[in-house]
Amino acid sequence: MSTKASMNETPLGQIETILKDLRTSFKSGKTKPLSWRKKQIEQLYKMCDEQRELFASAANTDFARPITETYLYDCGVIRNECIHALNHLDEWAKDEYRSDSLAYATMSKYVHPEPYGTCLIIGAWNYPFNLTLLPLLGAIAAGNCAIVKPSELAPHSASVLTTMIGRYLDSSCIRVVLGAIDQTHALLKGDIDHVFYTGSTAVGKIVAKTVAEKMIPVVLECGGKSPVYVADDANIAVTAKRLAWGKTVNCGQTCLAPDYLLCSKATESRLIPEIIRAWRTFYTDNPVNSDSYCHIVNGRHFERLKKLIDTSKVIYGGEADANRNYISPTIMTNVDENDKVMQEEIFGPLLPIVTVQNEHEAIEFINARSKPLALYIFTSNNNLAKTIINSTSSGSTCVNDVIFQIAPPSLPFGGVGDSGLGSYHGKYSFDTFSHHRSVVYSATWSEPILSKRNPPYTKQKTAFMESLVKARRNWVPLPRIGGFWFWAFAALATAVITRVLVRGFRDDKWEF
Fold first, then answer.
1. Is 303 a residue of the active site?
2. Global pTM?
3. Which helix (H) or strand (E) holds 395?
4. Cα(333)–Cα(27) distance, rounded to whole angstroms?
5. Given the DSSP bridges, would you call strands 314-316 and 227-230 parallel, antiparallel or unpaired?
6. Which H/E stretch holds residue 175?
7. What is the pLDDT of residues 253-262, one digit of tens each?
């Protein structure tokens, strides 16, 4: 299957103009009102609802992606996140007033979420709409202008995104740039305030290095080799179905896909037949002709995956067709850490199995490698699951399922270490694209107290101020007081403090 469709790249000379236009729009204050943000989110929902067939058709043309997968995992997820944002945006955007100890009770303190300005969103091809529009949703919710750069590896999807974003969203604040390395480099060097990148760890490091020179925040959503540990007490029938689904949905081209499997030899012998049975149920004995089975995105990735297949260790699958960029669901056994398939993120329908004696050996194996984006554990023993969770580190963890930890908008999605930096989804998207600004109003009537911080310094002044600001354990923060009761408290406090200070002067107890 060919995906070498031409894509109308944005001329490099236009990028500076686009960025200037977005900067002008942001400075005008157009994106800050919640009414504008909500309208754009409603339009984003409408776009994914009305154009889901067009989106699905484009992804199918790019890499034979099943229509249902675009409906569910791109358009469906985006629509749900839009509704979640609309339901909670008023709450997210509120100033968060903070209470504190008595020393700071005279201050009115709050955290004010404000937009960064112009945000660059670099999307990925494997979920061409989800991984581009969900970050865009966060940027809009936080009140930013945004420039979107879809992946050139899914050209039909990128072209559709360009047309539909221009049709549904405010083009004075949200723009799309098409292209590859040159366009991306020009954008990163341009006048931007925040970068959100989804893709490989190797490219993520380049992005991070580039923006570090400009001291702007960056979120990196990368991947890695997400391990699965199947304990001997796991429900094998359920485990097999869920692993079979997670390994081959989108043909394994999912950053959260289970990468390799750790289990005992006994569990392996019980698990493999069930996984094979599940795949045959999903895709028949000939997945190449199944409308439910996706293909590899292009020839380069096809050849990369083909080289990872050790035919001497394949016990199921292993078929490949370069004309269609097709690789069948494949299981490899007797795999060790030195095999090619264990040297990089697979990002395809290959399932290598590494046998271990127990969970302790599995933990050692996992910890000897880079921190993964996800860790999957299948067991009937919650204490065992907690032991593994507490002994390892990963971007997320799911027990007795795979990938689905990404679904609830109440949870953050992001990596750790080589698997990424920062997170999003739900309120975490809003927070990611917001600068949380501390704001303090200091009362002028508190000057009799605060003036003790002023030079010339004396031991008495120092002792007084140290005592005033000293933190105390188990201190209950004072509630925020407003209106009549605030001023009543302020008047009383002023009277008491003034009385003490005046008496101190008269008795020569304070040598100020």
1. no
2. 0.91
3. none
4. 59
5. unpaired
6. strand 174-176
7. 999 999 999 9
